[in-house]
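Cont'd.
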Amino acid sequence: MGKTLFEKVWDAHVVSKIEGGPDVLYIDKHLIHEVTSPQAFTGLEKRGISLFRTQNTVATADHNVPTKNQHLPIAEPLSKFQVDKLTENCNKFGVTLYGLNHPFQGVVHVIGPELGITLPGMTIVCGDSHTSTHGAFGSIAFGIGTSEVEQVFATQCLMQTKPKTMKIEVNGKLNKGVLAKDIILYIISKISAAGGTGYFVEYCGSAISSLSMEARMTICNMSIEMGARGGMIAPDQTTFDYIKNKEFAPKGKKFDEAVEYWNDLYSDHDAKFDAVLSYDASDIEPMITYGTNPGMGIKITGKVPFVSEIKEESNRVSFKKSIDYMGLEEGETMLGKSVNYVFIGSCTNSRIEDLRIVAEFVKGKQKAPNINALIVPGSKQVQAQAKREGLDIILEAAGFELREPGCSACLGMNEDKVPKGEYCVSTSNRNFEGRQGPGARTFLASPLTAAAVAISGKISDVRTFNF
Amino acid sequence: MEKFITLQSTIVPLPIEDIDTDQIIPARFLKATSREGFGNNLFRDWRYDENNQPKADFVLNKSNISGKILVAGKNFGCGSSREHAAWAIHDYGFKVVISSFFADIFKNNALNNGLIPVQVSQEFLNRIFEEASKNVGLEINVNLETQTITVVGVGISEKFEISEYKKTCLINGYDDIDYLLSLKEKIETYEKTSKYLKIVNE
């Protein structure tokens, strides 16, 4: 019987198998940031050991960094302490660091791909659940805890139980105004925030293979939001074209050899998945979430469900708690709801294509007076590219400001927070209670929908605009 | 790591589903660089109001409820990979979390810290919540050796799954890193034979 893409990559990385236990998996690339690494470095020090393969780890500062005046010292003392600690640890252990003032700095899941660090067929881990992003290249990429960060530091390996495999197929042509973000919000709304737990997903079908690499990253990024450890897409010509000439990608003959290897990375026609789901692209419309987990999504023209529609009784209490937190009523229409905050950024939607989509939409329009908008590029390179294309000027003319790169209001570890009780339409990945600041209420949506909300000052269907 | 064989304790019931790691420990409390002290901010925004006063109706603030076993609704620990969530629960004093379903990363993080995630059936979980609502002193016994969970005095019990490898680790207090460090030669052999490493490395 044939193998799935996942099995091909997994099997090529098994160092050893334990009877009745997990596999020992070799990790090709380890990305680290300031929040989930300090305790792992301390662990190494306590054991009196160093990194086993220092060159396989790359660090950046993203979660805690301000998005204004990055050339100045960080004002918030605890954030400064943590970012300084990362610098100290990287210096001490010899780890490559793209720190705050480095031209390669940025959100860890944005810089890996854009620097050609992320390659097909790899195993990639990071102490961050959105590591699933890198699966867009046909790599096995997943988030880990800090004890596991220490394991990778010490041995370049992890103990992992092989997950089950799930195929999610989306076929057909996408409707106007529908982006990759809508596809993934649609899928999660169908299978729930726990529907993928225990699985590694492969996305395929004509609607997926027609997507750009950046759009594929948006899809894989949110695999964790359905509970899946990761999601991957078989590499193809779109992938190879994206990788070619990237800073750290193989070059010349090495690149050709690599492509030859990568061309074998697909699920065999007779490969067996543990679960298979199929969706029709034409059924997907612009999406928005109404609740406090990413599975609570509806078409933007839809209504908040009624408690009586919730099938499982055990789920009803949580559902009610969720819509109470959001200040919504059962059966309420989302369109027209007044919103004062918009966040465009995060490892889900902060790449150059996202900024282009937003700039193109707001060009010649004006930001609604009630809107506070944050537009945060994913990396220094994205920021520089946006400026080269004059996107910053278009955004400014429409009343917006392009900030400096970081995770920003996706999780509010820096100053970029949404105030208590306020609604924010956000291109990020999580609408959990308090995620964007204590008491903040998040509606997840695509960059196009976020742009439409920023212009109208209320939840709007982007398809009703001229764009 | 602390050894774990068996535990009998009163419980803290939290019958809410999809409790994500942002609720367990909000991001703004992740700025510490050590593993200790996160228990103070466990369930911070459910536990305290904006003036840092305890919310009387939250279970951790009820003086008649305490215990070393946390019982929560399905899909516990979803969201972020922050191990700080497991540290916070453990630091607060819990040794076991019971739910009908755990998020994958949380489960690994818990096991790496000697915090035992015990997965029970939805029916069994519902029954625990029902019994706990009638009796605040309800005790549960978790036996890792026999992989059995028992609701004391009610006469119901259930078997739970755990990998043989993890079970051995927990009973003896071993962690994965000790084992991995012992495999160094195998890892080096793998590196020499990996076709992929040859292709992507200079």
